[in-house]
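Technical annex, item 7. During the second reporting period the consortium partners agreed on a shared format for inverse folding records so that results from different sites could be compared directly. Each record opens with the tokenized structure and is followed by the designed sequence. A conforming record, contributed by the partner at site C, is shown below for reference.
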């Protein structure tokens, strides 16, 4: 069996051969038109039963099964299991036993997929972000892959609750008034709570719905005044009323749209804690910008930086003109670590990657109490430097890679 998607990722058909590939015929895939949504490049797997070749499974948004060689297909997961299927194991000697892996975890069926049991003892939730309530630091928040925004009010293991849907990304708790909570889902869907996260309303008033928005759209507080927030699509927006409304303060800061997936977006925003008029923004297509007049004018500060996905820009908390940038070459299959420092607001850059492993760098934090201490997060773990990047060491003991 072979399953096809078009260049966007929509389902285009299932074909099978009964003679080792000498000839092919299209099966009846009418029931599968929505099996990929538009993510055939991400799903797009098909498994054949090891005992009965008339039985096959399409692993997509849902799980589909045929028992007659593709003449008909049944959705055997809708309503019973989490969406976004990624892996199916069929027992080699008892094909009634199935293991299904998806964005919600692991499911087991003992009857060929007629019913499913969820295995809840696996610590497999992927957190994209985390947040700490500064007024009650035991209250922890996080945005998770396809499992929304979640929090614990005690810091314990047993009282995590789901407070916002979709893929959870940025989540912010106002450090001065924690009744204001902001949570986000994929491609910039932002919610605003005025009652401590008990309920949310949409918070994109003033943001152009036709803008390009990153899968993980950045939303940040002004570091001095949390009533002011910044939001990045391909344009930078500013709110002065706790996200009740937004105003554009930049032109398009990217190089334009990509081919099929959303590309040409702002990926990171940083406002100087020393001078709130200094704002930095980085994009997925290699641009870094600075404005020193609250967005009235912008200067491109790419020169001296690699043309790579900008994962983070971080303004120094003490020195007004010092700024850091991390980039990732993952999209280009390039592994050289890249951490850069500028002491003149990006006019010139120094590579401070030093002895970091050759792996994408995803984030950098400058220690607010000692700005010679830097922390970077990478695909191979977290590292710390106590000498402005001349030397890096793995951070902590027993921190998983």
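Designed sequence (site C submission):
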């Amino acid at each position: 069996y072979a399953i096809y998607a078009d260049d966007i990722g929509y389902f285009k058909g299932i074909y099978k051969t009964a003679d080792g590939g000498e000839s092919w015929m299209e099966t009846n895939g009418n029931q599968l038109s929505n099996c990929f949504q538009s993510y055939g490049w991400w799903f797009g797997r098909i498994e054949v039963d090891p005992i009965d070749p008339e039985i096959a499974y399409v692993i997509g948004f849902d799980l589909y099964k045929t028992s007659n060689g593709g003449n008909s297909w049944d959705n055997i997961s809708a309503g019973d299991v989490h969406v976004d299927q990624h892996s199916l194991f069929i027992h080699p000697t008892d094909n009634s036993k199935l293991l299904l892996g998806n964005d919600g975890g692991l499911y087991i069926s003992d009857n060929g997929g007629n019913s499913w049991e969820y295995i809840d003892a696996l610590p497999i939730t992927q957190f994209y972000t985390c947040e700490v309530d500064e007024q009650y630091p035991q209250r922890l928040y996080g945005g998770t892959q396809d499992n929304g925004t979640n929090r614990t009010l005690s810091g314990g293991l047993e009282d995590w609750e789901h407070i916002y849907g979709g893929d959870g990304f940025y989540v912010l708790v106002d450090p001065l008034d924690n009744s204001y909570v902001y949570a986000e889902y994929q491609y910039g869907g932002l919610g605003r709570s005025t009652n401590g996260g008990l309920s949310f309303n949409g918070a994109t008033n003033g943001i152009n719905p036709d803008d390009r928005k990153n899968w993980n759209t950045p939303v940040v507080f002004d570091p001095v005044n949390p009533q002011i927030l910044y939001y990045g699509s391909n344009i930078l927006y500013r709110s002065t009323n706790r996200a009740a409304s937004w105003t554009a303060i930049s032109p398009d800061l990217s190089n334009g749209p990509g081919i099929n997936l959303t590309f040409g977006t702002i990926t990171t925003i940083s406002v100087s804690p020393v001078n709130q008029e200094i704002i930095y923004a980085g994009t997925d297509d290699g641009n870094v910008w600075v404005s020193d007049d609250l967005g009235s004018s912008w200067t491109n500060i790419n020169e001296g930086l690699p043309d790579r996905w900008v994962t983070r820009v971080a303004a120094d908390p003490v020195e007004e003109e010092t700024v850091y940038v991390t980039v990732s070459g993952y999209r280009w299959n390039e592994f050289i670590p890249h951490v850069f420092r500028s002491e003149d607001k990006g006019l010139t850059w120094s590579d401070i990657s030093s002895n970091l492993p050759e792996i994408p760098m995803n984030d950098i934090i400058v220690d607010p109490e000692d700005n010679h201490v830097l922390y970077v997060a990478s695909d191979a773990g977290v590292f710390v430097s106590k000498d402005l990047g001349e030397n890096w060491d793995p951070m902590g003991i027993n921190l998983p890679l």
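The chain has a mean pLDDT of 95. The radius of gyration is 24 Å. All partners now use this format for quarterly exchanges.
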